[in-house]
Design goal:
Elements lengths: L1 H74 L3 H12 L6 H14 L2 H6 L2 H18 L11 E12 L6 E12 L4 E14 L2 E19 L2
Antiparallel strand pairs: 1-2, 2-3, 3-4
Helix pairs in contact: 2-3, 3-5
Length: 220
């Protein structure tokens, strides 16, 4: 009997020891897994932050590229192209207050301040506007005034640059003139000498002008 009791006691002790070992191993495994899981989270956040930073950098790069392209486009405009815009506006206006004043304002952006004054752009616009108002009231034209009461419409033109002076240009144009009292007008051929100061007109001189034979036409 004593031997059997001792045997059972020993077996029980061994069983308890095995359970303690198994539980200890289980807790260790659980703690180890939790530790790995927690340490992996910051890495994920860092990865997301890197992606966001990459997207922001990419977006800024695109914006900078667009800005650079826009600046390049502005730089590509040449004095000759600005002169062509000037001539079209210089020889195009209707006989109404809005068109006359809009032309004068736009020409101011294309000319040097001195050229704008010496060519009487603003004064001529004011005189022409006053003449239009007078005609609308009285149907009379002041023939003593050098300003002609005609609408103009640019048709075509050619710009040549001087081979000896890069700032000097020669312009040949055709435009339509329609007196205020007529529905049909006539084509005019004119030639100008133009001096550019950078991208702006510094001087313009009419060297030749004549009506084109058989050049009657309607506005537009």
């Amino acid at each position: 009997m004593i031997d059997n009791k001792k045997r059972r006691t020993i077996l029980l002790a061994i069983g308890l020891l095995v359970m303690v070992v198994v539980l200890a191993i289980g807790f260790s495994i659980v703690n180890l897994w939790n530790g790995k899981h927690q340490t992996s989270l910051p890495a994920s956040k860092i990865s997301v932050s890197k992606k966001q930073s990459t997207k922001e950098t990419s977006s800024m790069t695109k914006e900078e590229k667009s800005s650079s392209e826009a600046q390049d486009t502005i730089k590509e405009v040449t004095p000759k192209e600005n002169l062509q815009n000037f001539i079209k506006s210089y020889l195009t206006y209707d006989l109404n207050e809005t068109s006359i004043q809009k032309r004068a304002s736009y020409l101011e952006t294309l000319m040097t301040s001195q050229a704008y004054v010496t060519n009487y752009i603003l004064q001529d616009a004011q005189t022409l506007s006053a003449m239009v108002k007078t005609y609308q009231k009285t149907k009379e034209i002041n023939t003593s005034n050098s300003t002609q009461l005609v609408a103009r419409s640019y048709k075509k033109g050619t710009v040549y640059q001087s081979s000896s002076d890069k700032n000097q240009y020669f312009v040949e144009v055709e435009y339509l003139e329609i007196p205020i009292y007529q529905k049909e007008g006539y084509l005019v051929e004119s030639k100008y000498d133009v001096t550019m100061d950078g991208n702006k007109v510094a001087a313009i001189h009419l060297t030749e002008s004549k009506n084109i034979a058989g050049g009657n036409a309607n506005h537009g």
